[in-house]
Amino acid sequence: MLLEDTDTHCPVHGDPLNDGVVMISYGLFRYSEAFTKAHRHLFPKSKFMVQGGCGVKDEIIYRMHYCNACRRAHLLWAVENKSDAGLPHLADEFERVLRLRFGMETSVTNVPPAVHDLMHAHKLVDALKLLQRANPGVEIPELRAHMRYLSRGAELEQAILAMRKGGPQLVYEQLAELTVRNGKDALQERFVGD
Known about the structure:
Order of helices and strands: EHEEHHHHHH
Strand content: 5-15%
Mean pLDDT: 77
Number of helices: 7
Structural class: mainly alpha
Number of strands: 3
Largest sheet: 3 strands, mixed
Distance between the termini: 35 Å
Helix content: 40-55%
């Protein structure tokens, strides 16, 4: 269970926190001692990502509070230390994870209209059986994943579209562009000098 952050100001920079949305990353994360120390003392409210733990849930988006100065400090630290610790997935990786977890790309090719009706009536076992008859040879876990997609398809497609338009991949594009074109001084001026 993710704990709600009730802070209103950054404990390091004193700035008011902004409201934002990030994708939840599930799994076990082990960070270096250097990153852990830097995160605690330099950019505790960067919040480029949120860890959801090892138990994968259906939640994919998390509302949180972040500090712009912490994000700039985190990005600068990432470049200086050649590290992606605490940074979000690239959009392609996020999309791949979503498609796998929510059955967006499966061998399910036929979805009878009655499946939707049964799902809306909360007759999930009947919907699964009908979906299985319409797609012989497809395993039950894959059918269940596809049913999750059918129930949340519009939300998932919107999440993917948001990632493509302005998600965390832009962070990486800015980092690469600034590092290659202008070197570290321009990066420092861009992310710290504001």
